[in-house]
Every structure is written in structure tokens, then in C-alpha cells.
């Protein structure tokens, strides 16, 4: 499926400040020619860049020179000016060792008049030679400079921190699922639903029941299914009568590794794991005659580690003994065994009679909606301020841990980054508090939420 276009970040500066070196660093290849003589770059060069998981299109531009418009340097400058139209951010690069020049000041004045947000880059800042140049940058009125060494790769984490607030909301969807015209997950696209579990839990029987035909081979023997079988199907949602497309994926049963010695079964299990990778929601099917076993918890953890939305269904409910105590026992064991994600949906179903299957599918669509949710920036900031006020970060050793702001960098699974200082001292219990609060207050329910902590590495920071 087509991805949304990458956000565009344009690199601007006078000749020989290291723009192409920075471009090569960001794209991870030596796409742009680099030399000590100025003016090597003439045309704009585009490359897909990655910065600690942040994706964007980097644009290398010709050095900005103060020449007549009809001259070659003048035409190169015009190309640079045009490159800023439609850009999402600009990196204004200066040479920290050379200090601020009149041409840098001219470019700075021009950039202040533009609507594109600017990150000021003090390049060649390795060692102490660039300290005075970094301080001079403040006079440009473009905010705090980011000291980097494009040649040596220093300061990249700080550049990431500066760029995230500008382009994080414009990240492309990173999976194979369908998007709408604006690049957001399409809620009307087929639900990719994988059915996993131990051998003979009734996965193929359940899918046959949903389809209303013997589409998949079933039987009392464990391990009949080897390949992951995908079936396109349409389900009429009894809640609103809407017809919803689903891609159902049956998988091979997953046994303990110690019991898997057949090469073909190893391949089948590997194929099942790949099916989880391409699923949106995964149903872990349990056998009511056997209850919840350690292997079930291992499969559940695998699904959560892959960042997929998870739900559990107890199959063969029509033959279950002491059904109420079985359900409550499985619920308690789940909350204990999956402590990192309490409240995972648990339903009772029967592939033989069809009991609970509509509820299972309805819950799967609800889970996908939560898994695909993007929180508006204003709502995320309000939640963050409230979370800090309700339970401030601890102050180990009398020194306060500062959490400055949070941003959502992607969905599917929902992933957030918190920026602050002294985060190495932040206890894991506080991170769990934030994650649990995100789930409860921002409508994520029981889907995996990723939270990353990042501290600035600016040597000039006073924190």
C-alpha cells in the first residue's frame, strides 16, 4: 500500500559549512559530493533520511551566495529559495569554528521572514574550537543552536530532539495496512486478523465457522495447519448492520520450542510468527478443556513484543466444565502473567456452535481503532500537564527529575517520546504510571503502548 509522503527537511547555509556532509550523515550514504572547496553542490539533492527512527526526506541545497540573480551562484541561490516552498522544516547550518559571518546574518534575516520552522545547526562543533561561534548564533534570533559535528556524527541525538516536535505528526504509517488520502490508517480497510494458539485449539474450525464453509482442513490431529492461510471475507456487524471486510489468517499451532524437532514444523511456526508481524489484531485461542498454560502466555508475550493488538478467546466453551470458575481463573492468571498489559480482552466462544463470535469480531475492530489512535497535540499536552501535577516525578538525592514535554511519534502501536533531564534516575514504576495513565486517560485501552525517554546531550545545557 502507498505510504503518505515523507516530511521534507531542507538544509540551507552559505558555501562550505558542511551541508552536504550533514546530508550524507542523515541519509546514511555518500550521495552528495563533499570537498573542501566551496560550491560543490549546485542542484538540490533529495534522499530518504532516518534519525533515531524519525523518517523524513532530506534536501541538500547549493551554498547561499550574494551574487547577481543571472549569475550561476545567483541561480543556485534561487533554487535554494524555491526549495523551501512546501518544506516542513529547515536546517540552517553555520560553521561554528568560523563564527558568524555577514552572509549568515543575511540568510538568518531571510529565514525569519519565512513560515517554515527553522532549526539552527552549529556544525563543526567538535572539541572547544566552536564554542564562541555557538554563542554568536543566539544573535540570529532563531532559537537555541544545536551543536553538531556532521563529519564525526556528534550531536545527532540533540538534532533529533529539535526535529521531533516539528515533523513527528507527519510520520508515514510504517505497516502494510491501507491508508486514507491523508496518510492516516483507513478505518474502512480490511481488518488483518490472525488466529494463533497452541495446536488443536480449534483455530481452523473457528475460521470455517465464520466463513460458513469447510474452507480449511480440520480434524482431531494436532498440527494439521502448516502454512499461514489468509482468507478475504466480509462480516456484517450486528451492532450497526455495516458490512466490514476482514482478512482472516489461520496459523500453525505453536508448541514449546523443546518439543519442536521436525524441520517442517519449525518452518510452520516461523511462518505463524510472520503472520503475527503482518496482523493488526491477533486472537489467541485457548482450549477450554485445558485452560491457560505457560505456552499461551509465551505466545501472548510474543504478540505484545511485536506491538500487535491482542485479545484472547476461550474456545470449546460448549464443552467447558465449571465455566464460570474457568473464566475467572483465566482472567486472574492473565492479569498476573501479563502484568505489563492488564485488561486484555477475554471472551468465551465456541467454534462449533458460533457462540460469542460476533462479540469477538466487534471487539477486534474496537481494538484496531484504539491501536491506530493518534492523540491531538493539545489533548496530549493537557494530559501530560495533569499527569505531572497529579504525581510529580521523584527527586532522588534531592535533585528534581524534569520531564519537559511528550510527543506521539507513531501509531500502530501508539508510540510516545518523553523529553527531560536526569531520566536515567527515573524509576521504572514512574514510567509504568505514565503508560497506564496514557491507556486510561487517552483512550488506548488494552493495546501495547511504547514509551521512550530521551535526555538532551547539549554540553551547554544548564539543567
UniProtKB/TrEMBL annotation:
Organism superkingdom: Bacteria
Gene3D superfamilies: 3.30.300.20, P-loop containing nucleotide triphosphate hydrolases
One Pfam match: MMR_HSR1
Keyword Ubl conjugation annotated: no
Keywords: GTP-binding, Hydrolase, Nucleotide-binding, Repeat, Ribosome biogenesis
Gene Ontology MF term list: hydrolase activity
Binding, GTP 2: 197-204, 250-254, 315-318
Signal peptide: none
Residue sites binding GTP 1 per the record: 13-20, 60-64, 123-126
Positions of the EngA-type G domain: 7-171, 191-372
Keyword Iron: no
Similarity comment text for this entry: Belongs to the TRAFAC class TrmE-Era-EngA-EngB-Septin-like GTPase superfamily. EngA (Der) GTPase family.
HAMAP family, A to Z: GTPase_Der
Function recorded in the entry: GTPase that plays an essential role in the late steps of ribosome biogenesis.
Quaternary organization: Associates with the 50S ribosomal subunit.
Protein name from the UniProt record: GTPase Der
Species of the source: Croceibacterium selenioxidans
Amino acid at each position: 500500500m502507498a505510504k503518505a509522503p515523507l516530511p521534507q527537511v531542507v538544509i540551507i547555509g552559505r558555501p562550505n559549512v558542511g551541508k552536504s556532509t550533514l546530508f550524507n550523515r542523515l541519509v546514511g550514504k555518500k550521495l552528495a559530493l563533499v570537498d573542501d572547496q566551496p560550491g560543490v553542490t549546485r542542484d538540490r539533492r533529495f534522499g530518504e533520511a532516518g534519525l533515531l527512527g524519525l523518517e523524513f526526506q532530506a534536501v541538500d541545497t547549493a551554498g547561499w551566495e550574494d551574487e547577481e540573480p543571472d549569475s550561476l551562484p545567483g541561480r543556485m541561490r534561487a533554487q535554494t529559495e524555491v526549495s523551501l516552498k512546501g518544506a516542513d522544516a529547515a536546517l540552517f547550518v553555520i560553521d561554528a569554528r568560523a563564527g558568524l559571518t555577514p552572509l549568515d546574518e543575511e540568510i538568518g534575516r531571510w529565514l525569519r521572514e519565512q513560515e517554515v520552522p527553522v532549526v539552527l545547526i552549529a556544525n563543526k562543533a567538535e572539541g572547544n574550537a566552536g564554542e564562541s561561534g555557538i554563542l554568536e548564533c543566539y544573535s540570529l534570533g532563531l532559537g537555541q543552536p544545536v551543536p553538531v559535528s556532521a563529519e564525526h556524527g556528534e550531536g545527532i541525538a540533540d538534532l533529533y530532539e529539535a526535529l521531533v516536535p516539528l515533523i513527528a505528526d507527519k510520520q508515514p504509517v510504517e505497516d502494510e495496512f491501507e491508508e486514507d488520502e491523508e496518510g492516516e490508517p483507513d478505518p474502512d480497510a480490511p481488518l488483518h486478523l490472525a488466529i494463533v494458539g497452541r495446536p488443536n485449539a480449534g483455530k481452523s474450525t473457528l475460521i470455517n465457522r465464520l466463513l460458513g464453509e469447510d474452507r480449511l482442513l480440520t480434524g482431531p490431529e494436532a498440527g494439521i495447519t502448516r502454512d499461514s492461510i489468509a482468507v478475504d471475507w466480509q462480516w456484517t456487524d450486528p451492532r450497526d448492520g455495516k458490512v466490514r471486510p476482514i482478512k482472516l489468517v489461520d496459523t500453525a499451532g505453536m508448541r514449546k520450542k523443546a518439543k519442536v524437532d521436525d524441520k517442517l514444523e519449525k518452518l510452520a511456526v516461523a511462518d505463524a510468527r510472520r503472520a503475527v508481524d503482518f496482523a493488526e489484531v491477533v486472537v489467541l485461542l485457548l482450549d477450554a478443556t485445558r485452560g491457560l498454560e505457560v505456552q499461551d502466555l509465551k505466545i501472548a508475550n510474543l504478540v505484545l513484543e511485536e506491538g500487535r493488538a491482542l485479545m484472547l478467546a476461550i474456545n470449546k466453551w460448549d464443552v467447558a466444565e465449571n465455566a464460570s470458575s474457568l473464566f475467572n481463573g483465566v482472567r486472574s492468571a492473565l492479569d498476573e502473567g501479563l502484568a505489563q498489559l492488564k485488561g486484555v480482552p477475554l471472551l468465551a466462544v465456541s467454534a462449533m456452535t458460533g457462540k460469542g463470535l460476533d462479540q469477538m469480531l466487534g471487539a477486534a475492530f474496537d481494538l484496531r481503532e484504539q491501536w491506530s489512535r493518534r492523540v491531538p497535540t493539545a489533548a496530549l499536552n493537557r494530559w501530560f500537564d495533569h499527569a505531572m501535577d497529579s504525581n510529580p516525578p521523584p527527586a532522588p538525592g534531592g535533585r528534581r527529575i524534569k520531564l519537559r514535554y511528550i510527543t506521539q511519534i507513531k501509531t500502530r502501536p501508539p508510540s510516545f517520546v518523553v523529553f527531560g533531564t536526569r531520566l536515567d534516575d527515573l524509576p521504572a514504576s514512574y514510567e509504568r504510571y505514565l503508560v497506564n495513565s496514557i491507556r486510561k486517560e487517552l483512550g488506548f485501552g488494552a493495546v501495547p503502548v511504547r514509551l521512550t525517554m530521551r535526555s538532551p546531550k547539549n554540553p551547554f545545557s544548564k539543567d
